[in-house]
């Protein structure tokens, strides 16, 4: 269990007997297979369930790159984006009030433990975004191609809702509109938001 041993404070570790190990510490509680299945949101839990304290919020660090989500609602997408932020060294992820809860069981499962290393902040994006001259880039279908762009060492990447994209209000706050060019069949409407995040973050880091 990757999240165990992270900076998150442990409340309880529920574990079946054959998965128990002394390294789990005093917070571990041995339960039956039936009890574990009743506690788990999964059909086939892997034998261990951890309950952790929600971390206290910390100030947002805009010294590097930050990702902001404008009403991303699919748990799998949010979980994957959290994992991508961890992979690409994005310390802070901003989520609009309409975005899916990061502690949704499906989100937590998709993060594969990265939830412990990425700091999430919920609120109105207009209030969370930096007030200083940090450049804000929005991902749009009709933006300028990301390839060949001269990207700065710091900025905010805004990703929109799965069906509606970035809202009109957030569009007004973006300093530049970026896009991933389409090379295949034109009937494909758009990329999955998590897939788009992977491509855009890879290009941002390649430029850096």
Provide structural commentary.
The two termini are 33 Å apart. This protein has 208 residues and is an alpha/beta fold. Strand 5 (92-95), helix 3 (105-111) and strand 6 form a beta-alpha-beta unit. The chain folds into two domains: 10-52, no CATH class; 65-207, 3-Layer(aba) Sandwich (Alpha/beta knot), CATH 3.40.1280.10. A six-stranded parallel beta sheet has the order 6-5-4-8-7-9. The protein has a three-stranded mixed beta sheet with strand order 2-1-3. The chain has helices at 33-39, 75-87, 105-111, 125-128, 168-173, 193-207; strands at 10-16, 28-31, 48-52, 65-69, 92-95, 119-122, 136-145, 155-159, 176-179. The radius of gyration is 19 Å and the shape is elongated.
Contiguous low-pLDDT stretches (5 residues minimum) are none
Q: Please give the CATH class of the largest domain.
A: Alpha Beta
CATH superfamily of the largest domain: SPOUT methyltransferase, trefoil knot domain
Which fold name fills CATH's third level, the topology of the largest domain? Alpha/beta knot
What is the strand arrangement across the widest sheet?
A: 6-5-4-8-7-9
Instruction: Characterize the main sheet.
Output: 6 strands, parallel
Structural class: alpha/beta
Portion in strands: 15-25%
Overall form: elongated
Kindly state the mean pLDDT as a whole number?
90
Based on CA atoms alone, the radius of gyration comes out at 19 Å
How many helices does DSSP assign?
6
CATH architectural name of the largest domain: 3-Layer(aba) Sandwich
Please indicate the count of domains: 2
C-alpha termini separation: 33 Å
Helix content: 25-40%
The total strand number stands at 9
What pattern of helices and strands is seen along the backbone? EEHEEHEHEHEEHEH
């Amino acid at each position: 269990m990757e999240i165990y041993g992270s900076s998150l404070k442990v409340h309880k570790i529920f574990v079946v007997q054959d998965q128990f190990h002394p390294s789990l510490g005093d917070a571990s509680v041995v339960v039956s297979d039936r009890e574990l299945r009743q506690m788990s949101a999964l059909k086939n839990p892997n034998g261990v369930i951890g309950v952790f304290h929600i971390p206290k919020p910390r100030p947002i660090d805009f010294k590097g790159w930050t990702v902001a989500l404008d009403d991303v609602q699919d748990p799998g997408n949010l979980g994957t984006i959290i994992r991508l932020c961890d992979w690409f060294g994005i310390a802070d992820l901003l989520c609009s009030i309409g975005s899916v809860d990061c502690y949704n069981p499906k989100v937590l499962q998709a993060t594969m433990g990265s939830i412990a290393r990425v700091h999430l902040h919920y609120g109105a994006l207009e209030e969370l975004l930096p007030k200083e001259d940090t450049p804000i880039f929005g991902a749009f279908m009709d933006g300028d191609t990301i390839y060949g762009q001269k990207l700065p060492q710091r900025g905010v990447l805004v990703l929109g809702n799965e069906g509606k994209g970035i809202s009109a209000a957030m569009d007004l706050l973006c300093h530049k509109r970026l896009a991933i060019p389409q090379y295949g069949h034109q009937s494909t409407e758009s990329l999955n938001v998590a897939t788009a995040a992977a491509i855009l973050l890879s290009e941002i880091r390649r430029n850096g």
